[in-house]
TrEMBL record:
Belongs to the 'GDSL' lipolytic enzyme family. CDD domains: SGNH_plant_lipase_like. It comes from the Eukaryota. This is GDSL esterase/lipase EXL3. It comes from Hibiscus sabdariffa. InterPro entries: GDSL, GDSL_lipolytic_enzyme, SGNH_hydro_sf, SGNH_plant_lipase-like. Coiled coil: none annotated. Pfam families: Lipase_GDSL.
């Protein structure tokens, strides 16, 4: 399915199919720098972030590219997917895709509000603004084609689990794991219906990773052996079951021609990397490369972390206490897209 030419990967699309653009919504996994100018601690626009990225730190929460870039490249849309709020973004960039994602956001609006970042509904408002700019340039008909032929990726939810539910008492005092995953599925459902209402037809929804197994969560909830924080994984699996069921339900409601709604499982692919790192060419799977690798992420992975950081991030599944390395992202993204490619058409 993949044609590899050196490092360039391009998917072979089904006959006569084209992808006009890629638009991405979500959190730090797919945020290329929308948070850079916000008053938030959820940022990655300083070293050692971006140390393996051409041009250095950009606000991407990794040592290199993030999944939104890799997906854009795999689909042959562009090499890098820019942040919509990047001051350098040109009108031309909007035609073939941008990311509206904001690190620390979640389906639960409380996640973004607590971190002072862009909520999922505000990301939709930015997309509306983007559509208006495209319409002003090329007219309604051409814009409608761009919007309907584009691929949409929605990737969020981890912060709802690790920060909003397990760190803050407010939700936990009112909702058990099942009730909270129901609450969030309601927000996710509304988001997808609103996105569809704006003309999106090919939507891939990423599930949650085994968030309890990322380095910082092992440190916080895994006891003295730093095992996976099982309660978080339990909520992530409950979430995934609800999100997957939600997609099935929406398929019966959102039925305009060309509509494709796909649930993309990341839980088991990432768990496989963590449990069998050697199989994928990694040496370390339970700590991140940045600093001590036990907890640092965002502003805590900063220039003072450089002396302690690992020399080669490609040996690590995780770049920091929360986010995978570029190499892990490439493996995961290719695996998931390869598995689900035909479902988008």
């Amino acid at each position: 399915m993949f044609c590899h030419d050196g490092n360039e990967a391009a998917l072979v699309l089904p006959k006569n199919e084209t992808i006009s653009a890629l638009y991405v919504f979500g959190d730090s996994i797919v945020d290329p720098g929308n948070n850079n100018n916000l008053a938030t601690i959820a940022k990655g626009n300083f070293l050692p972030y971006g140390r393996d990225f051409k041009g250095g730190p950009t606000g991407r929460f990794s040592n290199g590219k993030v999944p939104s870039d890799i997906i854009a490249e795999e689909f042959g849309v562009k090499d890098l997917l820019p942040a919509y709020l990047d001051p350098k973004v040109q009108l031309q960039d909007l035609f073939n895709g941008v990311s509206f994602a904001s690190g620390a956001a979640g389906y639960d609006p409380l996640s973004a509000e607590t971190a002072n970042v862009i909520t999922m509904s505000e990301q939709l408002e930015l997309f509306k603004e983007c559509i208006k700019k495209i319409e002003a340039a090329v007219g309604e008909e051409r814009t409608a084609t761009i919007v309907s032929k584009a691929i949409y990726i929605v990737c969020t939810g981890s912060n709802d689990v690790s920060n909003t539910y397990f760190l803050l008492p407010i939700r936990r005092s009112h909702y058990d794991i099942n009730a909270y995953s129901d609450l969030v599925a309601g927000y996710a459902s509304q988001f997808l219906q609103d996105l569809y209402g704006l003309g999106a037809r090919r939507i891939g929804l990423l599930g949650l990773p085994p968030i309890g197994c990322v380095p910082s969560q092992r440190t916080l909830g895994g006891g003295k052996n730093r095992d996976c924080y099982e309660a978080e994984n339990q909520l992530a699996t409950a979430y995934n079951a609800k999100l997957s069921g939600l997609i099935d339900n929406l398929k019966t409601v959102l039925t305009l021609p060309g509509t494709k709604l796909i649930f993309l499982d990341i839980y088991y692919p990432l768990l496989s990397l963590i449990q069998n790192p050697g199989k994928y060419g990694f040496e370390v799977a339970t700590v991140g490369c940045c600093g001590t690798g036990l907890i640092e992420a965002s502003i805590f992975c900063n220039p003072t972390s450089i002396p302690l950081s690992c020399p080669d991030a490609s040996k690590y599944v995780f770049w920091d206490g929360y986010h995978p390395s570029e190499k892990a992202y490439k493996i995961l993204t290719s695996t998931i897209i390869n598995l689900h490619l035909k479902e988008f058409f």
